[in-house]
Structures
1.
Amino acid sequence: MSKTLILATASIATVVLLAASLDRASAAERTTKTPTAKAPSAKAAAIEQGRYLILMGGCNDCHTPGFNESAGKLPVQEWLVGSPVGFKGPWGTSYPINLRTFINSMTEEDWIKNAQTLQGAPPMPWWALHNMKRQDLAAIYAFVKDLGPKGENMPSYLPPHIAPQPPYINFDVVLPK
Ligand code: HEC
């Protein structure tokens, strides 16, 4: 083989190798540009808004056991499973329901209708739900749906004439004499 031919073959080989590595680079670039690497989707934004509303709405204070004791640091996976500690007062005894099983058993439309019309026994602040925007109720739904169901159903409400089993908190009002 002549010297020129050797040089020419060598440079062709270099070009081929270079082209191959350029092709790999662009393939790698293509895979990093798939939609999954994009900014958060509308669904992710709704889930985050739902988490924010539950936290700001104080729903965990009653519906999440151990939340207050953790100074609000309990992981989201533990949220809203309901509390077996009854609230006893002139209204009877009420138990903060398991919102994980409750909301996960409903369609979004059923949840929104329920939230806009419910009038739970004290101390459930149901008017907070009546005043939420439809979009906010949908965000709460998206958040709890994303968490999925967890835990058992809590005891049912008891009317005033039925004495509850412990544990319960007494809300009886003591008036001045
Ligand atoms: C001060 C305690 C307390 C707080 C705060 C609270 N809840 Fe409740 N919640 C209860 C109790 C107790 C019940 C059960 C009421 C009953 O038996 O009628 C209840 C019931 C419910 C129900 C079921 C109503 C039905 O249709 O029977 C929903 C839904 C609910 N709460 C959602 C929420 C959400 C969302 C928040 C936050 C915005 C929240 N709760 C904040 C105590 C609370």
2.
Amino acid sequence: MKIMVIRELKTIRKNDVVKIVMMGRPKVGKSSICFFLSNGYPPPPSLHPTMAFDLHSVKLENQEIILVDLSGQAGLFVAEIQEQFIKNADGIMYVVDSSEHDFSPDAQYLTYLDDVISIQVPMVFLANKQDQEGAKPPYFFERSILNTIRRNYRIYGTVAADPRGIRSGENIEKAFEWLFKTIIKKKLTSTIQITR
Ligand SMILES: Nc1nc2c(ncn2[C@@H]2O[C@H](COP(=O)(O)OP(=O)(O)OP(=O)(O)O)[C@@H](O)[C@H]2O)c(=O)[nH]1
Ligand SMILES: [Mg+2]
């Protein structure tokens, strides 16, 4: 019996663009996170709200990754093109503003995700704006809106753009790396061929 892993690994690394979709309500920090990941430093405070979507390219371990930054304005009523991005995603980054009070729209959003995209697709949940007063810690989300999630997920408390410039970038790369590695591992296991 021969397990053809190495050849498959090379194939994945060379040809497959990994597609990650950023989701969440308006102004939670999705574009700031994309900016940080593509540039390595925080964005200027004057970021404009995203219209429909933006695409960013990031390289990690020689692998090209496309970040699809969806506008939060549409909420659950995403246009067809946005839904196509969601359906074709290899991984999801879901972002919340941890200092908000009501997260029921996010719970609704996550249920919608379960309807649209296979639960095999991993998700990283970013409890962003941890620098703000009253920000809920990651375990708050674990106990409230994430306790029914069946997909493989991790949660990170993050700071994309601290106005004081002290904590900007906190946990962003760590969260991204977890998602990337989980996607690659999943791609590998689904392409492993066993021959006799
Ligand atoms: N205090 C604080 N502010 C942040 C953080 N991340 C982003 N912001 C600010 O939040 C505002 C909105 O950020 P965006 O990145 O544009 O949010 P978005 O989710 O892309 O918003 P839409 O495109 O409208 O969906 C900006 O003023 C950012 O500077 C953070 O971690 N802490
Ligand atoms: Mg945006």
